[in-house]
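Weekly sync, protein design subgroup
Attendees: M.S., D.O., the rotation student, P.L. (late)

Item 1: inverse folding check
M.S. brought a backbone from last month's batch and wanted to see whether the design step gives back something sensible before we order anything. D.O. pointed out we never logged the input encoding, so this time it goes straight into the notes. Structure tokens as presented (160 positions):
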């Protein structure tokens, strides 16, 4: 996970999310009114569907983003690297997350909470999620390794 290039002195009032995961975190932190733009794939929670669309997940539209005058833009890892560079050249504040583990997801939540003035809400959310993860781990622990379901998550199919 990585941070942004610029720091905010006060909580941002106009936030754009370029990733469904960041959108869900923002809503979980109670930032509904601060979210001014999301991607076409941001559909959870249902209120996300009502937000202004700034293009697709893989190809957010820079001009649409700029027109919404965001205080901060939340991007996702290497996927948005070209857009992040362009937005930063345009003077936009961008924060980038690239979590690869559950612990890094918790770190992203903590960082977003700090960036948005919702640090205490973020801590409570993380505690709640840690309890859920613990419960799942305990239940999984009762299943023999050989009997556990396998999961494959493919983000791209060329090459697989």
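Designed sequence read out in the meeting:
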């Amino acid at each position: 996970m990585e941070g942004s290039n610029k720091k905010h002195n006060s909580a941002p009032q106009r936030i754009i999310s370029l990733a469904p995961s960041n959108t869900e975190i923002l809503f979980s932190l109670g930032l509904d009114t601060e979210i001014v733009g999301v991607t076409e794939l941001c559909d959870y929670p249902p209120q996300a569907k009502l937000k202004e669309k700034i293009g697709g997940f893989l190809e957010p539209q820079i001009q649409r983003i700029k027109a919404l005058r965001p205080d901060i833009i939340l991007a996702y890892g290497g996927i948005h690297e070209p857009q992040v560079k362009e937005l930063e050249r345009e003077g936009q504040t961008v924060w980038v997350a690239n979590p690869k583990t559950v612990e890094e997801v918790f770190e992203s939540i903590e960082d977003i909470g700090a960036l948005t003035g919702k640090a205490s809400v973020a801590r409570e959310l993380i505690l709640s999620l840690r309890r859920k993860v613990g419960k799942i781990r305990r239940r999984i622990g009762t299943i023999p390794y050989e009997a556990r379901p396998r999961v494959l998550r493919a983000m791209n199919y060329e090459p697989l």
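Discussion: DSSP finds five helices and four strands in the chain. The first helix runs from residue 20 to 28.
Action: P.L. to compare against the previous round before Friday.
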